[in-house]
Design goal:
The complex is a heterodimer.
Chain A lengths: L4 H10 L10 H12 L4 H11 L3 H10 L11 E6 L2 H5 L2 H12 L12 E6 L11 E3 L2 E3 L4 H18 L1
Parallel strand pairs in A: 1-2
Antiparallel strand pairs in A: 1-3, 3-4
Helix pairs in contact in A: 1-2, 2-3, 3-4, 6-7
Chain B lengths: L22 H6 L4 H7 L3 H11 L11 H6 L9 E7 L9 H7 L1 H14 L2 E8 L4 H16 L15 E6 L9 H8 L24 E5 H13 L1 H5 L2 E2 L2 E2 L1 E8 L5 E6 L5 H8 L9 E5 L8 E2 L3 E5 L5 E5 L7 H6 L8 E6 L4 H15 L5 H19 L6 H9 L10 H21 L1 H4 L12
Parallel strand pairs in B: 1-2, 1-4, 2-3, 7-13
Antiparallel strand pairs in B: 5-6, 7-8, 9-10, 9-13, 11-12
Helix pairs in contact in B: 2-6, 2-9, 5-6, 6-9, 13-14, 13-16, 14-15, 14-16, 15-16
Classes of the chains: A alpha+beta, B alpha/beta.
Chain lengths: 162, 449
């Protein structure tokens, strides 16, 4: 496993906070996904070995929880809330606007590898619907016009990096 | 009657200009004085005050907090854990988010007071994975509180020690169910446990006695110790004490969060006066009053309720006081306080298709009636919207929904079947008419599924 030294250090800090090492499965998977972008088969085995578990004990967690993924995604992750309060205020149209902007269907990575668009379930900000998370940041009241603004910002950031 | 004024206790400083989530700001506003006071009280006295307060849990079930605490096995010799349910994920609910992001020390103080009362030495905050900033804010707040000797070893020189640790979920709704949450905290799939024997108060985290309380509930505990249980019980209405945060979303002019004394505001006052009424040119049609699993109410319906003396009274939907007991008597629930409003632009088949997709996605898959039933309800309503709709689909849905509730390990079985059952009971005509309705143009509607 090729993890950054600071990830390894944080992993060692996390484990003693639980009387039973197995409890550290979720936090370790979060740390590894933040570092590597996804949970590889190697990572699953590494976590199992580190915590004294069978690999299946870790794999069953990875496959259950929606936030863990076994494949890499786009550089930016756009998560549009699909659930009722957001849908009532146009969440499906917001998602379609992002799909149009990046010419990619939800669940897929854009051709340039820049974004993955996903529908997710309730993000607990129903009063400012529709809401969207881009990476770790919540954006509120994202109608189609706002979705286009946010898309332009993502493209500008990508252009600046090149 | 005009709506009463908001009474902000938990949300006192939410959105207040200049109020920041750091310890210095919290201390400037009198923070942690209640913890000092609590450490001078006997733990049994605090539990007694919470019982006297009548506080009912704010996570969904409305179970008495003092009663929950009194069920804890204190003779086992095993450590007692406190687990904070910050997995806020019931659709329509968005209250704990603001406490966590804007006033984290209020929650920490509530945790410390509750931990002292219950002889807890280790508390975990289980926060939903979609709140990454919230988790960091809590971690920072805990570090500040530890540095100031308010959390950690020998709190304020009292000899009492308690650690708090933040544990992030990873996007699964079922982790809000307390035994599923415990499994998740143990590093497993969050399959809810069967009760008996796995009552958390006896066999919870690591098979030790465990208290699982909602974020808002623990903040209330701090205020109960502040003013005393009897004083707290004067807020709200008998049996429905304190304030609660009502979250309104969907088709109103001013959605948002509002803190009211429980039962002092009616649904009509909340939606018309506080939230500004329906959107221009529209009328209200349906209300889900307590998170998406609560049974739907039809705007315009009336209820015949029994009084204590055996007589009956008629209550219109807009006159329902937003308390636990009246909402239950009207066949629904106060749940998590999330009020979702739908107006006449909504076709109820499409709204149900949206809800069914949620529950099919979130069923943990452990019990067959729920795993299969939630999926079939989704498949049927999705086909109605996107494929062929038949007049008999309502009856088909009813047949599936009626075989889930009461046949599963946890309450998700009820949560996923109540929407279908109540939509059919209140809007059955719309299901029968859907094949014709979907063919007609409806420019006012947005896609819901």
């Amino acid at each position: 496993m090729n993890l950054k030294p600071e990830t390894l250090q944080r992993i060692e800090e996390v484990i003693p906070h639980y009387p039973v090492a197995r409890s550290a499965v979720l936090p370790l998977l979060h740390l590894i996904q933040e570092d590597a972008g996804y949970i590889s088969a190697e990572a699953t085995e590494w976590v199992a070995a580190r915590l004294g578990l069978q690999p299946i004990n870790v794999l069953e967690v990875v496959t259950f929880y929606p936030m863990f993924r076994q494949q890499p995604i786009g550089r930016r992750h756009i998560k549009v809330c699909r659930t009722l309060s957001c849908a009532l205020r146009g969440g499906y149209q917001t998602c379609a606007a992002f799909e149009e902007e990046f010419k990619v269907h939800r669940g897929e990575v854009s051709a340039d590898g820049e974004v993955t668009i996903e529908f997710v379930e309730c993000l607990a900000s129903c009063g400012t619907a529709p809401v969207v998370m881009i990476d770790d940041d919540l954006h509120e009241n994202v109608d189609c016009a706002r979705a286009r603004e946010l898309s332009a910002r993502i493209r500008a950031a990508a252009a600046a990096r090149r | 009657m005009p709506a009463p004024a908001e009474r902000r206790i938990i949300f006192k400083h939410i959105d207040e200009p200049g109020y920041t989530p750091d310890l210095a700001c919290y201390l400037r506003h009198g923070g942690y004085a209640t913890l000092r006071k609590a450490l001078g009280m006997a733990p049994a006295t605090i539990i007694d005050e919470v019982k006297k307060s009548g506080l009912r849990g704010r996570g969904g079930a409305g179970f008495g907090c003092g009663l929950k605490w009194s069920l804890v096995d204190r003779k086992s010799g095993k450590p007692i854990y406190l687990v904070v349910n910050a997995d806020e994920s019931e659709p329509g609910t968005f209250k704990d988010r603001y406490i966590i992001h804007q006033d984290p020390h209020q929650l920490l103080e509530g945790i410390m007071v509750s931990s002292w009362a219950n002889n807890v030495r280790q508390a975990y905050i289980y926060i939903r994975g979609e709140f990454p900033h919230g988790a960091r804010i809590l971690e920072k707040a805990i570090a500040e509180a530890c540095a100031a000797n308010l959390v950690g070893p020998n709190v304020l020189g009292s000899g009492y020690s308690c650690e708090i640790y933040v544990h992030r979920g990873a996007g699964a709704y079922i982790c809000g169910e307390e035994t599923g949450l415990i499994e998740s905290l143990e590093g497993k799939r969050p399959y809810p446990r069967i009760k008996p024997p796995y009552f958390p108060a006896v066999l919870g985290l690591y098979q030790c006695p465990t208290i699982v309380n909602n974020v808002e509930t623990l903040c209330h505990v701090k205020h109960i110790v502040d003013v005393g249980g009897e004083e707290f019980a004067k807020i709200g209405t008998p049996g429905n004490t304190g304030t609660r945060i009502l979250c309104v979303s969907g088709h109103v002019r001013r959605p948002g969060y509002f803190e009211y004394e429980v039962g002092r505001i009616t649904l009509g006052q909340l939606l018309h006066e506080v939230c500004g009424g329906p959107l221009p040119g529209r009328t209200f049609k349906a209300i889900i009053p307590g998170g998406s699993s609560a049974k739907v109410l039809r705007w315009g319906e009336t209820f015949t309720l029994k009084n204590k003396d055996g007589s009956t009274r008629t209550l219109a939907v807009e006159d329902i006081p937003m308390d636990f007991d009246t909402l239950a008597a009207c066949g629904t629930m106060g749940g998590s306080g999330g009020v979702i409003v739908m107006d006449d632009s909504v076709n109820m088949v499409e709204a149900l298709a949206n809800i069914n997709a949620f529950y099919a996605h979130e069923s943990c898959g452990q019990c067959t009636p729920c795993r299969e039933g939630s999926l079939w309800m989704k498949k049927i309503t999705t086909r109605m919207v996107h494929g062929q709709a038949r007049t008999e689909d309502g009856a088909l849905l009813q047949g599936v929904a009626d075989q889930i509730a009461g046949r599963t390990i946890c309450a998700f079985g009820e949560a996923c079947s109540w929407p279908t059952q109540s939509f059919l009971a209140k809007f059955g005509d719309e299901f029968r008419a859907y094949p014709a309705a979907k063919a007609a143009p409806r420019p006012e509607s947005v896609p819901l599924a």
